[in-house]
Amino acid sequence: xxxVVRPTIYTVAERARVSIATVSRVLNNSANVxxxxxxxxxxxxxxxxxxxxxxxxxxxxxxxxIIALIFPDISGPFYSEVIRGVESEASQxxxxxxxxxxxxxxxxxxxxxxxxxxxxxxxxxxxxxxDEYIFYLHRRRIPFVLLDREIGEIKVDCILSNNVEGAxxxxxxxxxxxxxxVAFISGPADSPDSNxxxxxxRQALQDHGLPLLSQLVERGNFLQPGGFQAMSRLLDRPDPPxxxxxxxxxxxxxxxxxxxxxxxSAPDDVAIIGFDDIQMAPYIHPPLTTVRQPIREFGVLAVQxxxxxxxxxxxxxxxxxxxxxxxxxxxCGCAP
Length: 336
What we know:
By secondary structure, this protein is of the alpha/beta class. The chain has helices at 9-16, 20-27, 35-48, 54-58, 77-92, 110-114, 131-139, 163-176, 192-207, 224-235, 249-261, 295-311, and strands at 66-71, 96-101, 121-125, 144-147, 158-161, 182-186, 217-219, 243-246, 271-276, 289-292, 319-322, 325-327. 41% of the residues lie in helices and 16% in strands.
């Protein structure tokens, strides 16, 4: 008779339809493996008569305890607040955070290709990497979470803000206070956030019977100088708008500076609403009316979702949509 082929961790993983890392986690009684997955693995072990070796048990322990946070740009108050959320939550789980800005060079960035081998998982902010890189991570079964971005072709963990609803509330507020010429200052053309906020702007105009006028839409770049320049172009028009919805707070601050530079007043001459509610929003002059999104919670939740993915790679992908809230201050002209 031939030798009996002994089952291995690979045959258990194949029978249970999970990765070998998940089998190892079950053997080590690790947390965050779903009960259904655990039961499937244990059933496969029993059916195959598998006897785990010490090396098999150790597979799940091969961790760096480092997670990478990838941003298109690590400067600015929005990113700083997300970073605070990530670092505070990561420290609760004894993880270190590597923060990296791509600054538009993702297509030729060798470090990005090397990075997954040096960390346990990645958190990727919108516009930080190209779709091809996300497909690469997905094919390699590398744990990652997307912030403010979805990939339609594959199901992955992602956290979104309700941008359309938030923008709609902001524009509706201006329309309800008598403004019929409401302009929009957008972010970069490749920003899903900006495009979603434009959609909320468009829907609000449509629902109030107003046309979408191209001359009332100006492109910005999510930075204060971009808001200043876009607002200046709007003010140069023969019939400038009486109100402007701006796709983020940094540009809104630049827009207020442009209004003031013309000897005009926000909100007396131009009402302005931003988006994000960054830390400085209540303290500028005038205090900025804005759409609040839970910026720090983005970071906290991203770490929680990533650690769940690291510890249970077979769990179903999850999409979480965080709510927004219109915060009324003086820049729109109707603060309490």
